[in-house]
Amino acid sequence: xxxxxxxxxxxxxxxxxxxxxxxxxxxxxxxxxxxxxxxxxxxxxxxxxxxxxxxxxxxxxxxxxxxxxxxxxxxxxxxxxxxxxxxxxxxxxxxxxxxxxxxxxxxxxxxxxxxxxxxxxxxxxxxxxxxxxxxxxxxxxxxxxxxxxxxxxxxxxxxxxxxxxxxxxxxxxxxxxxxxxxxxxxxxxxxxxxxxxxxxxxxxxxxxxxxxxxxxxxxxxxxxxxxxxxxxxxxxxxxxxxxxxxxxxxxxxxxxxxxxxxxxxxxxxxxxxxxxxxxxxxxxxxxxxxxxxxxxxxxxxxxxxxxxxxxxxxxxxxxxxxxxxxxxxxxxxxxxxxxxxxxxxxxx
Length: 348
Ligand SMILES: NC(=O)c1ccc[n+]([C@@H]2O[C@H](COP(=O)([O-])OP(=O)(O)OC[C@H]3O[C@@H](n4cnc5c(N)ncnc54)[C@H](OP(=O)(O)O)[C@@H]3O)[C@@H](O)[C@H]2O)c1
Prior knowledge:
Blueprint: E1 4-9, H1 14-23, E2 29-35, H2 45-48, H3 58-61, E3 65-66, E4 76-79, H4 86-95, E5 99-102, H5 118-121, H6 128-132, E6 139-142, H7 146-161, E7 164-173, H8 185-188, H9 199-210, E8 213-215, E9 218-220, E10 225-232, E11 239-247, H10 253-262, H11 266-270, E12 280-282, H12 291-294, E13 303-310, E14 316-322, H13 326-342
Helix pairs in contact: 1-13, 7-9, 7-10
Residues 10-16, 35-37, 39-40, 68, 80-83, 85-86, 103-105, 146, 176-177, 179-180, 324-325, 328-329 line the site of NADP nicotinamide-adenine-dinucleotide phosphate.
């Protein structure tokens, strides 16, 4: 099978580097172009990037950095551009015919842009027809904020089995979530910062859209109320969420646990290349999940849930852990592109 040529925008950043790693041996996609800010245009990727983790994939080393305004030869774009700058460029790329899979916040809540987590709402991807009109190939598909994705995946088994009325979440978020170079070490070492600009609003708004359903040609948000408190902690990778849920019906703890354990969805049935065998893994140990031990499960695409117990204010509380740069960002976009490909949306 001929692989589809893809470009990564924002390729030198924390998420961009994850894309470059994940695309190295991808069976359907081949990385052919890398884009960063104009100041680096023309430099070979290996010279321009401050590579964070592991060996730099050999095929990416000599790729020259392109400008966002360049015409790209790639057929598909993955965007890890900064919020605020991403939206106009992504819209322009879509108008020029490129399918764009984005991590940025700018277009996530636009009514015609699907906010896709394939295990939850694969049907939302049909919204791209609203963007394409007649004869245009381009569109934008967004994935959620990293915490919103991890939380939505942890809630989905409960939504399906019992309904969820409300949810409170306190997040302990890794420093890689702030990009590279990100938070100064003198601020975060030996510390917890109880504020991440804009984060709580994103989680509270995006989770209902992700869990919502298509009605006519838009997404009707789910009726779940979300309350979020987000903190930055000195962990390199992997967000930890302390979640409380009020269910719509009564359910014994054993059935809640079964709902987590039995959860599977369309990407698993379709055997999409980035779909983990278990999108949600339930652990029974008293002290799990932990980011350092659980963030790489399922190639970084599994959300691990544990410490399930009754809650005197809500119904149940539990801990969820997921990789912010893979399940919460680059891996999420790639899975969305795989879903689009499986549905024929990348065909000429
Ligand atoms: N980090 C996470 O865990 C995470 C999770 C979910 C979503 N996201 C979202 O993903 C996006 C990328 O995040 P990040 O953490 O990777 O940020 P980052 O480390 O700051 O990287 C930003 C990238 O964008 C490039 N860039 C900046 N301005 C540009 C422009 N005008 N045109 C083209 N490229 C430009 C930078 O290139 P230079 O090196 O040349 O400056 C760099 O490659 C953000 O929208 C973020 O909110 C991040």
